[in-house]
Amino acid sequence: MAKRKRKKRHKKTFKSKNFFEKAKRFLLSPKKAFKAERKTRLGETFKYGLIGLAILGILTGIIYLAFPLQAIPFAGPTLFLMLLVLTVIFGFIIFVIGGLWLHLWAYIFGARKGPEQTMKAYFYAKTPTFFLGWLPLISFIGAIWSVILEVIGLKQLQNMSTGRAAGAVIIAIIIPMIIFIILIFWVLNLAATTMGTIPSGMFNLPT
After folding, report:
1. How far apart are CA 108 and CA 189, in angstroms?
2. What does the DSSP assignment read for 46-90?
3. Rounded distance, CA 30 to CA 87, Å?
4. Which pLDDT band holds residue 80 (cuts at 50, 70, 90)?
5. Is residue 118 part of a domain?
6. pLDDT tens by residue, 115-152
7. Domains in the chain: how many in total?
8. Is residue 77 part of a domain?
9. What is the predicted pLDDT for the residue at 79?
10. Which domain holds residue 139?
11. Is 6 contained in some domain?
12. 200 domain residue, yes or no
């Protein structure tokens, strides 16, 4: 009985409403962290995501303040505020769309716990991005880390096998990448075709 009480007490204390404490648990003990969020309301998850995006926006703004770009005429506090607002607003919209897109494939692979659980897995999995996404080269590590956390999150919150969770995450990433690559080639081909139809002497300056 004493052991059971200790386990229950541990489950209660493991969940935290403090953003940084929760983020630390997702980074260091993701399996337990996701388990603790099974009954969390989606509003709490959205709040966590908004705080994380605000931190990412602030850190990104600091980088631009420290290393201003001469091409941007309004660099300074104005740019800092713009980056913060745009990161939070557009980041949240992208996260919601990304979570729904991931749930489509998670459902195909057997997820039956509802889109809320997938959305929670997606939002909490972005924790490494919140802290590393502002760094030019290290942000790639944060992105890979987030993908791994998505797999763990789906496994814990949707009761999926590792293989099914990984399959859903990988396909959800690969398909947009393929579409993006096709669009790039299409735009480049269109630009090359357009430039080819312009008379060669059209842009020659008079001497």
Report:
1. 35
2. HHHHHHHHHHHHHHHHHHHHHS--TT-TTTTHHHHHHHHHHHHHH
3. 25
4. confident
5. yes
6. 999 999 999 999 999 999 988 788 999 999 999 999 99
7. 1
8. yes
9. 77
10. 16-191
11. no
12. no
